[in-house]
Amino acid sequence: MPAKQPRTYADIIRHSFTSLLTTIGIVIVLTVSVTLVVDQLLRAQNQAEQLSASLQTSQVTNFQDWLAINRSSGLNSHNTFVFIKNANGSTTSLLPHGNALANASTWSVPFTHLTYFKGLGLFFAETLKTGGRTYHLYIGMHVLVGNLHVLIAVLIIAIGLSLLIGLFFVRRLAKRISAPTIQLAQAAQQAAANPETTQTELPQPQEPVEISQLAKDFNQLLASQNGRLQRERQFISDASHELRTPIATIRGNIKLIERRGDKHPEVIPESLGFIDQESLRMQHLIENLLHLSRADRAEVTLQPLNIAQLTQSVVTHYQPLVTQPLSFIGPGDPVMALGDTDMLHQILTALLDNAHKYSPADQPITVTVAQSAGQITVTVADQGTGIPVADRAHIFERFYRVDASRSSKIEGSGLGLAIVSQLVQLNQGTITVSDNDPRGTKFTVILQATDELA
């Protein structure tokens, strides 16, 4: 069985409108027809009751008596017939042409007083017994049938014209409604055809509201995609730049050894030192890139941790590695938060590394743990040179260095804080940077507090 072809807006609207009009037309035809039939049957029944009452009173036996009753009752003699069955079994018709009706084949409509006479039409039938005679009354329903024919024909013509006119307007309506969607789809196809380029905003119509909202959502998605694409390009450019320098240094020193190593062996140890230093720099850069890559794909299960104990342990183990005095401030009681032990250890170490690199050797670094309003804050504050306000929005970007003039003087690839930001997000926390008092920088990590014990 072939798959059903998907339909357009116009097809769906036309099909729905046609079905609606057809259903309404059928309901109208049935309602009017049933109403007319019931009305005519009630009229025929009323006539039959009047005629039955007259027959019971007069008990006519011939055509002249019938004419007198017919004239006094106002009945239509051309539409009404009476047959009399006598006690001896003979049948008398009160109209000269009634014998044709008596001899015609009949078919009774179930559950009604209607009888169909072949070749003569539909009649309302009633039987009355009085004075030894049985009167069979037949009132013709020709007017009803004729009216039904005319009514149905008129309704069919009216419904047909309504369908034609309606389909014309529906076609225009469907085209008007689907135009913004088609325009949006074409723009989206053009955007999808060039995934490597920065995408322009899709057209956003004012109406329908649903399509306008869809276009707005698409534009937000495109803006996010453009930002991600721009960051990836910048990341590739920065990574290439960072790798190009040590590779060039390594190749230059290798060439120097090849050219002058035989005659000037003293250059060999110095060149090997440069090669070792630059290769170590490349190793750190690649390790940081791998950290970022793993963090982007990591799935973390957060568990209750004593942040105060973990932070104090990191500070204690880090103190012998730096010249700055480290101090820890925190409550003596357990401070429980949701997090991952290894990642939080890496976050704290990276923040301490950053404070160590940008602080004078004799200035203190303070690590503080506090709890308030269902949150745990871990703050690393230094007395260094500080970070300008304009740079604070970018310090968590990959390869961003605050002071380009010091980039060569201070070791680092500009990936440390980007890794910290990614790890904090994985722990469902936030990180902010602000000025320290009286000088320096303060990094604050905010985590979710929990009442559970580890």
TrEMBL record:
<keyword id="KW-0808">Transferase</keyword>
<dbReference type="Pfam" id="PF00672">
    <property type="entry name" value="HAMP"/>
</dbReference>
<keyword id="KW-0597">Phosphoprotein</keyword>
<keyword id="KW-0472">Membrane</keyword>
<keyword id="KW-0812">Transmembrane</keyword>
<protein>
    <recommendedName>
        <fullName>histidine kinase</fullName>
        <ecNumber>2.7.13.3</ecNumber>
    </recommendedName>
</protein>
<feature type="transmembrane region" description="Helical">
    <location>
        <begin position="148"/>
        <end position="170"/>
    </location>
</feature>
<dbReference type="GO" id="GO:0005886">
    <property type="term" value="C:plasma membrane"/>
</dbReference>
<feature type="transmembrane region" description="Helical">
    <location>
        <begin position="20"/>
        <end position="38"/>
    </location>
</feature>
<dbReference type="GO" id="GO:0000155">
    <property type="term" value="F:phosphorelay sensor kinase activity"/>
</dbReference>
<dbReference type="InterPro" id="IPR036890">
    <property type="entry name" value="HATPase_C_sf"/>
</dbReference>
<dbReference type="InterPro" id="IPR003660">
    <property type="entry name" value="HAMP_dom"/>
</dbReference>
<dbReference type="InterPro" id="IPR005467">
    <property type="entry name" value="His_kinase_dom"/>
</dbReference>
<keyword id="KW-0418">Kinase</keyword>
<dbReference type="InterPro" id="IPR004358">
    <property type="entry name" value="Sig_transdc_His_kin-like_C"/>
</dbReference>
<feature type="domain" description="Histidine kinase">
    <location>
        <begin position="238"/>
        <end position="451"/>
    </location>
</feature>
<dbReference type="InterPro" id="IPR003661">
    <property type="entry name" value="HisK_dim/P_dom"/>
</dbReference>
<keyword id="KW-0902">Two-component regulatory system</keyword>
<dbReference type="InterPro" id="IPR036097">
    <property type="entry name" value="HisK_dim/P_sf"/>
</dbReference>
<dbReference type="InterPro" id="IPR003594">
    <property type="entry name" value="HATPase_dom"/>
</dbReference>
<keyword id="KW-1133">Transmembrane helix</keyword>
<dbReference type="Pfam" id="PF02518">
    <property type="entry name" value="HATPase_c"/>
</dbReference>
<dbReference type="InterPro" id="IPR050428">
    <property type="entry name" value="TCS_sensor_his_kinase"/>
</dbReference>
<feature type="domain" description="HAMP">
    <location>
        <begin position="175"/>
        <end position="230"/>
    </location>
</feature>
<dbReference type="Pfam" id="PF00512">
    <property type="entry name" value="HisKA"/>
</dbReference>
